[in-house]
Amino acid sequence: MDRYMIESPHTAEDCHLVLKEVYAMGYLHHFEWGCPDGDHSGWAIVEAENEIHARMMVPSVIRNAARVVRVWKFDTDETEQLHLVQS
Question: pLDDT digit of tens for each residue in the chain (87 aa)?
């Protein structure tokens, strides 16, 4: 499985609904939230089969606004190879 970073911005007005839906979907413990500081967004790094499956972890009311990016960690050799390819 691949790892994905999810960023799910929402309005202050939708905040309660979003949190309620994330809880109902069983993903509340996956997300970190900026809402108490006025940044109405949730962030999570999750494992999923693909981007579509990762996006399904976002409530439908904000799903289209979510950013879902596949992420990975590099080791030293991979970092060197990446720089050679980009040069």
Answer: 999 999 999 999 999 999 999 999 999 999 999 999 999 999 999 999 999 999 999 999 999 999 999 998 877 776 676 666 555
Determine contact, residues 15/35, Cβ cutoff 8 Å: yes
Q: Could you tell me the end-to-end alpha-carbon distance of the chain, in angstroms, rounded to an integer?
A: 30
Quote the CA–CA distance of 5 and 8 in Å, as a whole number.
10
* Alpha carbons 59 and 61: distance in angstroms, whole number: 5
Strands 2-9, 41-48: pairing is antiparallel
What topology does CATH give the domain 2-86?
Alpha-Beta Plaits (3.30.70)
Q: Could you give the CA distance from residue 56 to residue 2 in angstroms, rounded to a whole number? A: 15
Answer whether 0.85 is exceeded by the pTM: no
Domain segments of the chain as ranges: 2-86
